[in-house]
Design brief:
This protein is an alpha+beta fold. The chain folds into two domains: 29-212 and 240-286, Hsp33 domain, CATH 3.55.30.10; 292-333, HSP33 redox switch-like (CBS domain Like), CATH 3.90.1280. The chain has helices at 49-58, 62-79, 119-128, 133-137, 166-178, 239-249, 253-257, 262-271, 292-299, 304-309, and strands at 4-6, 29-35, 40-47, 87-94, 98-106, 110-117, 140-147, 155-161, 182-192, 198-209, 277-279, 282-283, 285-286, 311-312, 315-319, 326-329. Strands 1, 2, 3, 9, 10, 11 and 12 form a seven-stranded antiparallel β-sheet that branches. Strands 8-7-4-5-6-13 form a six-stranded mixed β-sheet. The chain has a three-stranded antiparallel β-sheet with strand order 14-15-16. A hairpin with a 2-residue loop joins strand 14 (311-312) and strand 15. The longest helix has 18 residues, at 62-79. It is globular, with a radius of gyration of 23 Å. It comes from Aquamicrobium defluvii. One of its GO terms (molecular function) is protein folding chaperone. It holds the Pfam family HSP33. InterPro entries: Heat_shock_Hsp33 (IPR000397), Heat_shock_Hsp33_C (IPR016154), Heat_shock_Hsp33_N (IPR016153), Hsp33_helix_hairpin_bin_dom_sf (IPR023212).
Length: 339
C-alpha cells in the first residue's frame, strides 16, 4: 500500500522551503499526488540524467531530441500508473521529418526510447526557419498501447496526429478512449551545467478528475462536448474541475523542469490552499530489455534465406535501436546443416 504525506510545514509568503525540507524525490522519480478537495489524482515528474543518457546516446539533432523527450515524459507519467506487470508503449507513425517516435515503459521502472527521422526532410524544414513540433511530426497517428503480457489481450488507443502536438493528442486520447477528464503539461529544455556542459531535462504533470459521483464525469463541458445528448444541460459546470484547469494553466514550463523547484514544491505552489497529499515516489531508469537470448530467439525465427541476407563479413551483427548495444552471431547456428 502506498504511504502518503501531506505537503505542509511552511508558510507561503513568509519563506520558501529549502530542498529536502519534506523529502524531495528529485530527478528521475515520479511523484503520485492527490488533491481530495478537488477530486483530483495525478503524477508529476522531472527527468534529468536518465533522459540525457537516452538522448545523448544517439546524438539526435536538437528538434528531434525535444520531441523524443516529450514522448519519454508522457510515457513515464502514464506507464507508472500500471498496476500489473506489463508495458506501456507510445508510438507515432507520421509523414513528417520525424516519422517515428517510440517510447516504452516496462513495469516497474524501465524506460527506453528512440526516434527515426529523415535527415534531408529535417534540413529542408530547418531551412524554412519554421521548425515546430507540428511540422516535425506532420500527419499520421499516435498509438498508446497497454500490453499485459502474452496471455492477455493488448489494449490500444489511436489518435490522429494532424496539426496537434503530443500534449494535445494525449488529451484527445483520454477524452475519446477513457472518457475521464484529464489535463497535462509537458516541458523540455537544456540545462547549462558548471563548466559549460549541457544536459537535457524534461518535466511533466498529469491530473485526472475522479469524483465519487459518476454523473459529475459525464458532463459535456468536462468531456470536450462528446457527452450524450441526454446529459446536455442537466448538470451545472463543475467548479472543482474548472479550478484544476485554471491552476494547471498557471504552470510555467520552467517550473516543470527547474531542479531547484522539484515536483513536491511545485505541487504545493499549485494546491496548498486545498491541501495536496503526495505518495511514495517511483524511480525510473534507463534500462533496455534487449539481450543476447532475445535476439537469438528472433534469428531462429528467420528463414534460411533471411539468415543469409543478414550475413556481413561472415557474421550476423545486430544493433539494438533503443540502446545501441551491438550483438554478434555465427550464421552457422541458424542455418540447416550443409547450408
Amino acid at each position: 500500500m502506498l504511504e502518503s504525506r501531506q505537503v505542509t510545514g511552511y508558510e507561503p509568503k513568509l519563506h520558501e522551503p529549502k530542498l529536502g525540507e519534506f523529502g524531495h524525490a528529485g530527478d528521475d522519480h515520479v511523484v503520485p499526488f492527490e488533491v481530495s478537495a478537488l477530486d483530483v489524482r495525478g503524477r508529476a515528474v522531472q527527468l534529468g540524467p536518465m533522459l540525457d543518457a537516452i538522448l545523448s546516446r544517439h546524438a539526435y539533432p536538437e528538434p528531434v531530441a525535444r520531441l523524443l523527450a516529450q514522448a519519454c515524459v508522457l510515457t513515464v507519467l502514464l506507464g507508472t500508473s500500471l498496476k500489473f506487470q506489463g508495458k506501456f508503449i507510445l508510438q507515432t507513425r507520421t509523414d513528417g521529418p520525424v516519422d517515428m517516435l517510440v517510447a516504452d515503459f516496462t513495469t516497474p521502472d524501465a524506460l527506453r526510447a528512440y526516434a527515426r527521422f529523415d535527415t534531408d526532410k529535417l534540413a529542408a524544414l530547418e531551412a524554412t526557419g519554421k521548425v515546430d513540433e507540428i511540422s516535425l511530426l506532420g500527419s499520421g497517428v499516435l498509438a498508446l498501447t497497454i500490453d499485459q503480457g502474452v496471455h492477455m489481450q493488448r489494449y490500444q488507443g489511436i489518435v490522429q496526429l494532424d496539426g496537434i502536438t503530443l500534449e494535445e493528442a494525449a488529451r484527445v486520447y483520454f477524452r475519446q478512449s477513457e472518457q475521464i477528464p484529464t489535463d497535462l503539461r509537458l516541458a523540455v529544455a537544456k540545462q547549462v551545467l558548471a563548466g559549460g556542459d549541457e544536459q537535457w531535462r524534461a518535466g511533466g504533470m498529469f491530473a485526472q478528475f475522479l469524483p465519487q459521483a459518476p454523473e459529475r464525469m459525464r458532463m459535456p463541458d468536462l468531456n470536450g462536448g462528446d457527452g450524450d445528448e441526454s446529459d446536455a444541460g442537466v448538470h451545472p459546470q463543475d467548479d472543482a474541475w474548472q479550478e484544476l484547469l485554471m491552476l494547471l494553466s498557471t504552470v510555467e514550463p520552467a517550473e516543470l523542469i527547474d531542479p531547484t523547484v522539484g515536483a513536491e514544491r511545485l505541487l504545493y505552489r499549485l494546491f496548498h490552499e486545498h491541501g495536496v497529499r503526495v505518495f511514495d515516489n517511483v524511480q525510473v531508469a534507463d534500462r533496455c530489455s534487449c539481450s543476447q537470448e532475445r535476439i537469438e530467439g528472433m534469428l531462429r525465427g528467420f528463414t534460411a534465406e533471411e539468415v543469409r541476407d543478414s550475413i556481413e563479413n561472415g557474421r550476423i551483427r545486430v544493433e539494438c535501436q533503443f540502446c545501441s548495444k551491438g550483438y554478434e552471431f555465427d550464421p552457422a547456428d541458424f542455418l540447416p546443416a550443409g547450408n
